[in-house]
Amino acid sequence: MKLSFVARPLVEADGDVLVVGGYAEEKRLSPPVAALDRALKGLLSEVLRTEKFVGKPEQIAYVHTAGRLPARRVLVVGLGRRKELDAERVRRAVAAAVRRSRDLGAKVVSTALLVDDLSPKVSAQALAEGALLGAYTFDRYKREKNEKAVEELRVVDPQRRQEAAIKNGLRLGELFAGAACFARDLVNEPANRVTPTHLAKVAAEIAKDGRLRLKVYERADCQKLGMGAYLGVAQGSQEPPKFIHLTYTPRGRGRRKIAIVGKGITFDSGGLDLKTADGMRTMKDDMSGAAAVLAIMRSLPALALPLEVHGIIAATENMPSGTAQRPGDIVRAMNGTTIEIGNTDAEGRLTLADALAYAAKEVEPQELIDLATLTAAVVVALGNLCSGVMWSDKPLADRVLAAAEAAGERMWPLPLIDEYKELLKSDVADLNNVGPRGGGALTAGIFLREFAGSTPWVHLDIAGTAFSEKDLPLGPKGGTGVGVRTILTYLMEEARRR
């Protein structure tokens, strides 16, 4: 979808559909809607009354202009109450409007900025993100594809003095949404295509296109580094593991060094502690953290931030076989910690243990963040619309949570209670990789904290939010790309810090 800016009065905007916003609980029409209603000689307000349009979020009503305006249709989308309006409400409203426009056969959609209470840049970025995320589809394996598609979104504003801010917002929105959709594509691909080797190939393409540094460690390399926890998971699969390290280095000296680690289990059968058939059905999504890291690293050259950023992925399958890891086995992680395998289906924390230890030792970052579809327990706690956040450093966690709020991605803090480390005790090793059922998300976080060392660290458990079984306001069912826009927002804010 092409994004463009047009400086002209709204009543002169052309296209197949012209989108404007309507507020709830307001007796008078908003100025843009009122101006269009006058041009249509009261037809728009009549349709709104007939359709019982009350401005509820994402409610839609539209009318044919019958040649009275350059645009063929005017579509009014609900924004809810004015005092509750924020960027996320704009994203969802535009997503709903673009989808309806697409279903109406529109190729070109023009839209007002929708709100005056947000800055032009923030509003334009939200518009772009909403349009691109809302229109996303994954149909590359379908013979019959939906031929309807919005090809261009034009942001119309009569004040040319806002043009630079609007264009900047559109550029950022296109970049952020494009990154999230890139991650969605990787997650939605089947596991027989997205193997550890495929992730390494994608990383190589990203490195080449963006002039990033890339190191891919093979199994023998990981053995030399002492990554016994990661390789223990990998030993059951015929697919070779790939430990991926991408590095973005800015021109000049970077202000900060940040490492981002993504869980990269390209398929999780559970290993010898085999999942049920239903529990295994969507386990191609267990590399959603890795997909997010690749999407983020792919975006950094365009952002040109003055930060040194490292993207790290320990990619492997978790499969049952004659060579698979057994319950009761003991492995040694890169930092020397020995781990008893209490359950082979708690494999993600094992791969992350070595990835975090590697980042802390080899990269020595000022900040360390991981994204992982880690536990079913976080889904029990927070459901499928909210990610869990745990940390060793509260100021870092506060900045990440603020970025999530700005990006419109729901995240909620969960406590790492020191006493719960007792639940990970082993009789024969330093740690067990599982604790009791209660507090499972927290014990998993405590386990990971052991391998981040003294580096300020934040853990995002995206097990419930990485893959949706139903359509959402900003996208269809399937991979969501969660975490991508949050971390990009966080990195932009970090670039402004001194």
Could you explain how this protein is built, in words?
The chain has helices spanning 31-39, 43-50, 87-103, 120-134, 163-188, 196-210, 219-225, 228-234, 277-280, 288-303, 348-363, 376-382, 394-407, 440-452, 484-496; strands at 2-6, 17-23, 60-64, 73-80, 108-111, 152-156, 213-217, 242-248, 257-268, 308-318, 330-332, 338-340, 367-372, 387-391, 411-413, 431-432, 457-461, 467-468, 478-479. With 498 residues, it is α/β, with parallel strands linked by helices. The longest helix has 26 residues, at 163-188. It is elongated and about 80 Å long. It folds into two domains: 2-157, Leucine Aminopeptidase, subunit E, domain 1, CATH 3.40.220; 178-496, Zn peptidases (Aminopeptidase, 3-Layer(aba) Sandwich), CATH 3.40.630.10.
